[in-house]
Amino acid sequence: MAEIFRERIVDTGRVPLFAFFTAFIVVFLLTRVIVRLIRARPRGPLRNVEPGGLHIHHMVFGVVLMLVGGVAGIALPDARGWAPVAAAAVFGAGAALTLDEFALILHLSDVYWTEQGRQSVDAVLVAVAMTGLLLLGLHPVGAEGLGGDAAVSRSALVAGYAASLAFDLLLAVITLLKGKVWTGLIGLFLPVLLVVGALRVARPGSPWARRRYAPGSRRYLRAVRREERLRRPLVRAKIRMEELIAGRPGAPR
């Protein structure tokens, strides 16, 4: 295991990214444990931070940590050793605290324990998935840069690269317009998923379906059947997983 870690993380220069990833997950899980304990026992030893009656959301501490970690990482661009690793870990902790209240930022309202609050968990899962793919050595579309044979002219390389990038981004936009957010985001790292997402039928209610699928049409009915047969069981499984990790919206029991 140590040898694999050295080959995949240390030798590839991904230790700061690994520190960010680890701190992000650990702080998010600890935060959810603490807020669930506070929710279950408001008069217990763990309580909300309310100096002078002002409730301070943990997102505030997250923003501060992100500033500290981000500025430290910028101020020490050529630093070696544990300094950039520590800065990345601090930034990851701050990002976890901030994204855990993503729904509050989005709605400008305290929706933490409502159905809308699930959007915070979705944002965290997206961040974990994207960072995990980066740790595995995958790069988003367009991040690979120009390579190829030296015998090929620079202009031909640029033209081919630009065409490939434009095509991949077009597929990503189509996939997202079809309501397939996860497929579109992960497809930025695995372009074959963009092809599948762009070719398959759109989700009912997506911008693509509303504009191109007339109610009652063959494509609309296919979209509805696919949603009921495949998508809804996956959504229910995702919700159960989110509730296991983050708690169930609504009044505490």
UniProtKB/TrEMBL annotation:
- Transmembrane stretches in the record are 15-35, 56-76, 82-108, 120-138, 158-177, 184-202
Q: Which UniProt keywords are listed?
A: Membrane, Transmembrane, Transmembrane helix
Q: Does the keyword Cell membrane apply?
A: no
Protein name (Swiss-Prot/TrEMBL): Integral membrane protein
Organism per entry: Actinomadura rubrobrunea
